[in-house]
Specification:
This protein is α+β, with helices and mostly antiparallel strands. The chain is about 50% helix and about 10% strand.
Length: about 300
């Protein structure tokens, strides 16, 4: 995680540890969630253990001491919703961890193996089902859904830190959407620039051999508009000439086809070359074929040719 993400997780844990239950039953439920003995991994949990009447073992730094908390009775099946959430808050502070690395949220509880299915069932009871697995002899209950994680944190008492987490998630989502839009627009612009370059080259070819002047009025108007505004889109040209976009597209396609073929090639797919025609030969305009030979080739119905 980045330093900013670590700071946010620390702030969230501090906010949850600072929750002071107004009801005595919630206070007892939170103690039960923390467990009778808790190893304080950070200062905020150590302070919470002291506030709830825990006694610290001697030696070591406060943030790494083990605390013994009062024994309390807690029945999950008979507990009301607010007591269940207090118990889950204690269990998260004692056994839970949150990771925001790489823009993804991951929350997990690490508990004794036999406790994992029990915790998963209790989370399902409050409408937040989670998966669990065995990891090196310990039970790990996890969420990877950002929606489930934010819902859980909000319900157990996080508010300010949760708003910051959600704001970052929204900002990250907006950046992703913006990047996708920019990439799509960049790709469209590249295609438009490439197409405009082909069209301008085709226009120059037709003008050089005099065929441009032979084209219909609409084609010549589209050609002139393309020359004047090479960067314009087809829609821009259509608006300028008061034509349909499809008419502009057809006119420019015609120009490109004519540049690749002669007039007889209009309507043929690009790159098509009639069988038997050499590179640079144009059917219908060249002097080859029937005109060059003076007669057509021998067909199936022609009489046999007499040799001299």
């Amino acid at each position: 995680m980045s330093d900013a993400e670590r700071d946010l997780v620390a702030a969230l844990r501090a906010e949850l540890a600072a929750v002071d239950p107004a009801r005595e039953c919630d206070r007892r439920a939170e103690i039960a969630g923390l467990g009778s003995r808790i190893h304080a991994r950070d200062t905020v949990v150590a302070r919470l253990a002291v506030r709830l009447g825990g006694r610290a073992d001697e030696g070591g730094r406060v943030a790494h001491r083990t605390f013994t908390l009062p024994e309390v009775e807690f029945s999950w099946s008979r507990a009301p919703e607010h007591c269940r959430l207090a118990w889950l808050r204690g269990r998260f502070l004692a056994r839970g961890s949150l990771s925001l690395s790489g823009g993804r949220a991951h929350l997990e509880f690490t508990v004794p193996l036999l406790d994992a299915p029990v915790l998963a069932r209790r989370l399902a009871d409050v409408g937040l089902p989670a998966a669990w697995r065995d990891r090196r002899g310990l039970g790990v209950v996890t969420w990877k859904s950002a929606e489930s994680i934010t819902s859980f944190l909000g319900r157990i008492g996080a508010s300010v830190s949760l708003l910051e987490l959600e704001a970052r998630s929204v900002a990250r989502s907006l950046r992703g959407d913006l990047n996708r839009v920019l990439n799509a627009e960049s790709a469209n612009l590249s295609r438009s620039v490439e197409a405009a370059g082909r069209q301008l080259a085709a226009i120059d070819t037709l003008e050089a051999d005099g065929r441009l002047a032979e084209q219909p009025k609409v084609v010549r108007a589209v050609v002139e508009a393309r020359r004047e505004t090479p960067e314009a889109s087809l829609s821009d040209i259509a608006v300028r000439l008061e034509l349909h976009r499809s008419a502009v597209q057809r006119a420019l396609d015609r120009v490109e086809r004519l540049a690749l073929h002669d007039d007889g090639g209009v309507g043929l797919r690009r790159g098509y070359r009639p069988s038997g025609a050499g590179f640079g030969e144009h059917t219908g305009r060249s002097g080859g074929g029937r005109a060059a030979a003076g007669r057509g080739p021998v067909g199936r119905g022609d009489p046999p040719q007499r040799l001299a």
